[in-house]
Amino acid sequence: MLENARIRLAFSTLVLFALLAGDAVRFTLGWWFFGVLTIGLTFFAGWLLWLQRARWSVGGMPLPLLTFLALATVSIFWSHYPGATALGLFTTWIIVVNAVALAVTFTWAELLRALGLVLRFVIGVSLLFELFVSLVLRERLLPFFGQPGVNYDSYDKIPGMLMWSRNQLFDVFGDGRIQGILGNANSLGFLALLALIVFGIQLAARTVQRSWGILWIVLAAATILMTKSATVTLALAGVAVVLVIALLVRHAKTDRGRMITYAASTAALAAVVVIAFLLRSRVFELLGKSSDLTGRLGIWQKVIDLAQQRPAFGWGWVSYWVPWADPFHNLVFRSGVRQLQAHNTWLDVAFQLGLVGLIVFIALVGAALIKAWQHAVDRPQKAPGAPLRHSAITLLPLLVLVALVVQSFAESRLITEYGFALLIVVAVKTKRRELL
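Structure tokens predicted for O-antigen ligase family protein:
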């Protein structure tokens, strides 16, 4: 079975679709269907890991990852909301098992192909979905299955935040933005950014036809423009900068050349950061953001206040906030909608697992970034003294992780679903030193 190419592609594609487009599945087929699907995939992933037990071991996993998972698990003993922590641990370990199975079972080339299939489906169907809503329905559309804990009948007018589609495709040149099958403009925009990375690498690696690759790059870029996400815009800029630096380092022929590239890049980045800070009001205006970052500053302050009450080990792991548990049930509301994240991964980790958890998580992300950077810029060798040509595919883990890290300062996705899964895949595979 492990050698069957169709089964391998089907499993990797299904897992990545469940991780990347879980909202679409839940809105369309319901939470129970999504639960059965993910549990079924997890059992299959566990079986794959068992079949390959000679190829991996718990001791071979990155130490910061093991430490973080251990800390999250034992936090149930001091959790303010043990029931919510138990549920959060259940979903977290489902993500871990599937992510480790992806990392151990599949090559980077196979993961690139599966990502390409999933992202093409999400973008293509999202654009058709928005077109159908605007041409045929001509009104806002609620999901078939709503969010748990939300009483839709309690609203005089249902907030746009709860709509599956806001029917704004034909208003994207004004104030409108599309949400696609994910029901969230920021989420769709970020997946379009991942698509831009994946499609670009596929085109550079010549694993797709040139015209086909260019078409999907255009569609991904158009989706980014129509979602109008400031977070995605910043993440795109971060990915572009890192890509340029990585390519310059790759082409440096000597150690001295690399050092000059690093020094010049550091100086340029520092200058950009200083200028952006001094002109932050103008930057916010250009990004279409208010001075309080669309309410995020208020959310962050509330989370900081709670984190300071339990500074060492936090309130207990929960990943996504559970809407029926204290203090989440009335902690943060925006436009009448209860928020289920801190909109900042680092604050969320500090709140849930305290300063200790934050330090461990920083170590996990930092180590993964370093390994991904080395994976991208160091020339592969067939044998000592026999270097090979650089491959475009080796840029994949670095660019994906950079996008996730930039997003993490405005969203808590890095500890949930696709964000946490992709972080684990990058951390595990780069530690195993698998090039392609």
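The chain has one domain: 5-431.
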